[in-house]
């Protein structure tokens, strides 16, 4: 990956709906060369898709929380079927080191939905302990898009 590939990625992250023609105009490349590079980035898996960013508040999800989950004895990670349990409010999940096993980023419609999710974590996946923190606001400039190394 060279500087031109990085520039293509940066432009796509700023505007995923940019046309290849406009992208080529922003680069020192021809339309065909830009198109070939973009195709290569997609085919190689560097670019994995194009997504819409949704405003959670306008989408009815007004409460953001980080939920640390410690699983019961003998469980080291959440079962792969976790995503199929209908936790629509969970928008991100990571397996951790340390006292807790998993951290969930939750976008709930209200406190009732968050409370129900916490109960289901204990009942449905055997969470032994949870620690929930409400997000007051995101810091300026975050979340930010990943830039290639």
Word description of this protein:
There is one protein chain. The chain is of the alpha+beta class and 149 residues long. The protein folds into two domains: 3-43, Orthogonal Bundle (Arc Repressor Mutant, subunit A), CATH 1.10.10.10; 63-134, Alpha-Beta Plaits, CATH 3.30.70.920. It contains four helices and four strands. A four-stranded antiparallel beta sheet has the order 2-3-1-4, covered by helices on one side. Strand 2 (90-95) and strand 3 form a beta hairpin. Helix 2 (20-26) packs across helix 3. The longest helix is centred in the last third of the chain and has 15 residues, at 111-125. It is elongated and about 55 Å long. The termini are close together. The model has no long low-confidence stretch (mean pLDDT 90).
Mean pLDDT: 90
Q: Low-confidence parts lasting 5 or more residues at pLDDT below 50?
A: none
Strand fraction: 15-25%
**Largest sheet: number of strands, sense, barrel closure:** 4 strands, antiparallel
Shape: elongated
How many structural domains are formed by the residues? 2
* Alpha-carbon distance between the two ends: 9 Å
């Amino acid at each position: 990956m060279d500087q031109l590939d990085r520039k293509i990625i940066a432009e796509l992250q700023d505007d995923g709906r940019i046309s290849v023609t406009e992208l080529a105009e922003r680069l020192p490349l021809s339309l065909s060369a830009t198109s070939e590079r973009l195709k290569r980035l997609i085919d190689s898996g560097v670019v994995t898709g194009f997504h819409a960013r949704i405003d959670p508040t306008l989408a009815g999800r007004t409460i953001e929380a980080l939920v640390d989950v410690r699983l019961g004895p003998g469980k080291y990670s959440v079962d792969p079927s976790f995503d199929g349990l209908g936790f629509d409010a969970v928008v991100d999940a990571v397996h951790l080191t340390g006292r807790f096993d998993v951290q969930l980023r939750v976008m709930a419609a209200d406190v009732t939905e968050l409370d129900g999710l916490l109960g289901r974590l204990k009942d449905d996946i055997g969470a032994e302990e949870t620690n929930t923190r409400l997000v007051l606001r995101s810091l300026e400039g975050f979340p930010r898009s990943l830039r290639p190394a």
